[in-house]
Amino acid sequence: MCCESKRRFLLLYATQKGQAKAIAEEIWQQAGAHGLEADMHCISEMDKYNLETEKDPVVIVISTTGTGDPPDTARKFVKKIQDKTLPPDHFAHLQYGLLGLGDSEYMFFCNGGRTVDRRLQELGAQHFYETGLADDCVGLELVVDPWIDGLWLALKEALHLQKEKEGMNNAVDAVSSTLATAPHAVHELKLSSEIQNLKLEDEGARGSDILSQKLDNINLVASAQDTGPSLVHSVPPVSQSALNIPALPPEYIEVEFQDTQGENPHLSSLISEGTTFEVPVTKAVQLTREDAVKTALLLELDIADTAFEYQPGDAFCVICPNSVSEVEKLLHILGLSEKGDNFVCVKVKQGTKKKGASRPQHIPERSTLKFILTWCLEIRAIPKKAFLRALVECTSDAGEKRRLQELCSRQGASDYTCFIRDSNVCLLDLLHAFPSCKPSLSLDIEHLPKLQARSYSVSSSNLYQPGRLCFVFNVVEFPAGPSRPVSRKGVCTGWLAELVSPLLHPSKNSLDTKGERSSTEKISVFPRPNNAFHLPADPSVPFIMVGPGTGISPFIGFLQHRQKLREQHTDWEFGETWLFFGCRHQDRDYLFKQLRCFLENGTLTHLKVCFSRDSSTAEVAPPKYVQDVLRLCAKEVARVLLKERGYFYICGDKKHMADDVSDAVVDILSMEMEADRLEAMKILAMLRESKRYLQDVWS
């Protein structure tokens, strides 16, 4: 089919970290092979498209961020379609298909996509293709790949029906001939993120490169004891399969090396979320003993001379760099160790085939190479399949090339999930495992995503500690393993721990003549307010807090704030407060033993603690986990939630705690209401909907 006869559809994406954009670009690349042309735009570019007059089918790829919010790039769009004055037939002319991205680890799974989908339906828009909801918890590709596969037939059918409506039945082109044997009903593809419901059979090339390789000439070396698959080794059937691999992404970046003269951009220029503040770290305390399983630190920031504002329950973000040693290793592998301090100019490659190619916004037009690798690129990011596909072309060894092809192929999906995604493999790990792979700097800049600022819960009250902001975190540890040759610390937590080491272990050299710190480290931060996770507006309303481990962090701020309010307003009525805290060992990681002070002065009404790894000689073993303690207080919990219309807050690990706490609350409601479990789940859903059951969780 010639270019002029290609039928158009509108392709919109709304992205926070680049995943939705990458998927939209994959759809755009495949469209041509199906005789279609995708008119692709970021959903924020509302001057380049108009849904009010759009006649062609619309495909939307949208992610979810925060606590179920649409991405920042979709905020104006969502605000526009949420206009309550719009009539119910406002989009009656519109046909669309929507692919939502989310993570079921979080409470409002795919809520960004669901919000847009629901509102378009309310305004009269019609699906031409069933909505897909992809789950990053199990692997986006498990839904994304079959959704894209089914998209082409649905698009062609929608365009064919559109032709009929326009009275163009006599126009028989390649699209209509493709549909000659297909039913005219709109194609539906029921997609679920549950792996057992997915069929990932090979349905042909569908725009991908087809790789058929006989392995007679390839020697995949494995040790005698290596009988199973690994990052570098495959077994049948993958090792003997013809492979469906993604199309090679077009190159679009070129890098020009310059001299070493000049200044790097200020860190604030890297952030689009709002005003950044460079603030000193005035205090650092290790809250756990040296023999604790995890190291928890409390840091205090001086924000007195800034316009930084926060409420207890808010979060804020820390702008952090990559590890210096990892940047040096990457420079060495790229053969650029001598050029780290050279300024580079990053621009779009002339003649690129990438549609709408532009320099990534997180890459300065001119800065040193070290600045880009240190502050701009997430070099720890898990490589996407498109990156693996590009790395194939940079690999000289036949066996290594084949294995990279397998890892990015449809047939190697489970190997990709196991050995790359679930193993948290990064570019450095890949280059160590596949030594003949020598990617260019421009390729790395194209495929490595933006280095994201890290978010932390505030653990203080500006009312209690004016001009100070505290936060608590565990220093994250990634042990070495089969796919990772060395152990690593978290990008931000490892950097912060090293930064404040002089505060934790002061030496004589770091003290001035008065015995005080002679210099203070500064970090760059910006606020990220939480719209819901705040104290009840009415202080007489009781509330329950559940925060094991560092999940207790925001509740320290809650209690500090409540204490000051009680001191300042002795005539107010204050509701009772419950705190459920748990950790492994009472003597090693009981983070805030001063909780007793809140209990003694009446700020905290009830404190319930448990220690999951401490042994007990009692006849009846004490509860190990916070959900167990909640069940022991079932009547009180039900009273606070049902009779007194109180609030319930959870903060901490999603997978290993928050879900178990939710189950415990359902059990409590069921038992105390003498209702079945389904009815109790409905009550919990109502509590969530009314913002009285609130979570601040992470995976």
From TrEMBL:
PANTHER family, alphabetically? METHIONINE SYNTHASE REDUCTASE, NITRIC OXIDE SYNTHASE-RELATED
Record key words, sorted = Amino-acid biosynthesis, Cytoplasm, FAD, Flavoprotein, FMN, Methionine biosynthesis, NADP, Oxidoreductase, Phosphoprotein, S-adenosyl-L-methionine
This protein's name: Methionine synthase reductase
Q: Which positions fall inside the Flavodoxin-like domain? A: 9-152
| Gene Ontology cellular-component annotations | cytosol
Cellular location(s): Cytoplasm
Gene Ontology process terms (BP): cobalamin metabolic process; folic acid metabolic process; homocysteine metabolic process; methionine biosynthetic process
The UniProt catalytic activity note for this protein reads:
2 cob(II)alamin + A + 2 H2O + 2 H(+) = 2 aquacob(III)alamin + AH2
Gene field: Mtrr
Q: Does the keyword Cytoplasm apply?
A: yes
Q: Which CDD domains match?
A: methionine_synthase_red
On assembly, the entry states: Forms a multiprotein complex with MMACHC, MMADHC and MTR.
- Source domain of life: Eukaryota
Give the cofactors, semicolon-separated.
FAD; FMN
The EC number(s) given in the record are 1.16.1.8
DNA-binding listed as a keyword = no
Native species: Promerops cafer (Cape sugarbird)
Q: Cross-referenced InterPro entries, in alphabetical order?
A: CysJ-like_FAD-binding, FAD-bd_FR_type, Flavdoxin-like, Flavodoxin/NO_synth, Flavoprot_Pyr_Nucl_cyt_Rdtase, Flavoprotein-like_sf, FNR_nucleotide-bd, NADPH_Cyt_P450_Rdtase_alpha
